[in-house]
Amino acid sequence: MNKSDYKEKGEYPIIDQSTDFIGGYTDEKDAIYEDVPMIVFGDHTRILKYIDFPFACGADGTQLIKPNNSNISIAYLYFELISCNLSNYHYARHFKFLKEQVIKLPSERVMQVYKNETDYIFRMIHMLRLQNAKLREARDILLPRLMSGEVEV
Fold first, then answer.
1. What is the arithmetic mean of pLDDT over 110-114?
2. CA-CA to 24 of 20 to 30 Å: which in 2, 42, 57, 124?
3. For residues 86 and 13, what is the distance between their CA atoms, to the nearest angstrom?
4. Which DSSP helix (H) or strand (E) runs through 68?
5. pLDDT (tens digit per residue) in 125-136
6. Percent of the chain scored above 70 by pLDDT?
7. Distance of CA 85 to the CA centre of its chain
8. Who contacts 136 (Cβ-Cβ below 8 Å, separation ≥6)?
9. Higher pLDDT, 145 or 60
10. Which CATH superfamily is domain 3-148 in?
């Protein structure tokens, strides 16, 4: 999806390699990835995002990552990838360096305990992001009315 196609509001969030968690929005159902959770990696920016909701993939340079082994927690892989030291080659493609990283895996039992704990935490983070979005929306509606005197305090 091109940056020019991003909307300020829409049905689905667009996740790209920008520093903003959500780059924009779209209403295009065909552009949506629903096989989540997933890791989004910015090939130029080296930014990693753990995504656990349906989304549209952003502009060029955004890589989608899932483990080959279903026993590996995506949250575990996410935090392991964050800890990798990727040098900044400026506007170079960094995904090839990320693929060269060696990741050590714990036992299946430890991985399952880790997955259970992190799934709960990421559900809470998702809920808080939704609440923040609703609060921003309410602020944007109320603030102009308060400033104009239409609504009294």
1. 92
2. 124
3. 27
4. none
5. 989 988 998 999
6. 95
7. 20
8. none
9. 145
10. DNA methylase specificity domains (3.90.220.20)
